Amino acid sequence: MNMIFDAAGQGMPLPGKIASEGARTVRAGFIPLVDSAVLVAATEFGFAHREGITLDLVKDVSWANVRDRLAFRQFDVAHMLSPMPVASMLGLGSNPSATIAPYSLGRGGNAITLSTRLNARMQAEGGLAEPENALECARALERVIRRMKERGEPLPTLAVTYPFSSHNYEFRYWLAAGGIDPDSDVRLVVVPPPLTSDALAAGAIDGFCVGAPWNMVATERGVGCIVATKRDIWPSAPEKVLGMRPQWAETNPETVSRLIVALDAAARWCDQPENHPALAEALADPRYVAAPVDILRRVLAGQFTIDPQGRQRVIKDYFVFHAGHANCPRPSHALWIYSQMIRWGQSAFSSKGAEAAASACRPDLYRRALGGDEIGLTVEAGFIDGHAFDPAKIEDYVASFPVKGRRVTAPQEV
Fold it and tell me: Entry's InterPro entries (predicted)?
């Protein structure tokens, strides 16, 4: 009998093959990032096929496109930013359409990269001595921005990939931890992930927060310096999820379960270092990430070139595809995302809003496919500024920050 294994290593029989729905093709939209690896591995290495599913992966150019094509039923499921289903359930954004996340695609992968020019000023004018210390980098940038204001210089233009994104909230969190107001001390804009390095090279932006491999692409091109990673800001932060319409999930319950089983097996495979060479080769394919295979291998290993001078940094568990319950969608994470929407003026707190935000995560569908114990509300710690998040006290949490938004605002799209 085929088996899957829970976190404790206990064997559980696989659910029966799809019967009432039949073997089917599932169309999945994705953005060319390393954190699409679980979907790519499920397709390329037979995990989906073994469960009676053909995954049809469709590469897209922006998160707004992915959102709209899922809403308009061009996609059955999608590789999505973890805040996107939360925003959809809160009715936020230009085209809100109910979206749920029954499976997380792992943790990690983001980084903040600044232009070499801005980084040089942080060292010369901001007193930056430790380029690998993310908090000191933020404080050095604050000192530079203060001088820019005194001299009447244009303030830095910084890019995120989508207004309702981990990148937006992590960039803002890092900036604020250094004493920088993201709404008045810098200009935030939206740039699609594959274009961030080009925009930095052209001088259209002065920095960005994006997922791998585009940060190291910028350093390898000699145009950027990595000053912080997702793990520096909050190691437990959720990243990408599998998004789908609630109605599609209700209509295709066996397919959803079989898809989760396939993705879970793929995620377990992606976590194994001995599989990273094959995974990097698959991701390098033009159909997927289309980045140099050498960069992809190093990113998967957490081995970074952080600046054009070739300085190196090794980040343990930079990507976690499966370990530590990385794939269970947690309502507590959705509530942290909601707290950031409140902090930066995208939403206001209400008990109804908190319920809607938490409803974006569907651990019940995850457990229906894989079994295991419920992961409930937890107090999250490990943030760069020392704050701890209690999902039962969202209003107090937001009020505790000295830097927070004062108006409804979102990065402007360019």
Answer: NrtA/CpmA_ABC-bd_dom
User: What CATH number does domain 110-236+303-316+399-413 carry, 2.60.120.10, 3.30.420.40, 3.40.50.1580, 3.40.190.10?
Assistant: 3.40.190.10
CA distance 58 to 56: 6
Residue 136: how many other CB atoms lie within 10 Å = 18
d(C-alpha 98, C-alpha 250), whole Å? 13
Residue 33's pLDDT band (cuts 50, 70, 90): very high
**Domain segments of the chain: what residues?**
3-108+238-293+325-374, 110-236+303-316+399-413
How far apart, in whole angstroms, are the C-alpha atoms of residue 173 and residue 178?
A: 9
The model's pLDDT over 37-56, given as tens digits with 9 standing for 90+, comes to 999 999 999 999 999 999 99
For residues 103-117, average pLDDT: 96
CA distance 80 to 36: 9
Predicted local confidence at residue 396, as pLDDT: 96
Beta bridge mates, 137: none
The CATH homologous superfamily for domain 3-108+238-293+325-374 is: Periplasmic binding protein-like II (3.40.190.10)
CA–CA separation, 167 and 84 (whole Å): 12
C-alpha span between 362 and 385 (Å, rounded): 30
Say yes or no: do domains 3-108+238-293+325-374 and 110-236+303-316+399-413 share a fold: yes
pLDDT at 99: 98
pLDDT in tens, 299-323: 999 998 999 998 999 998 999 999 9
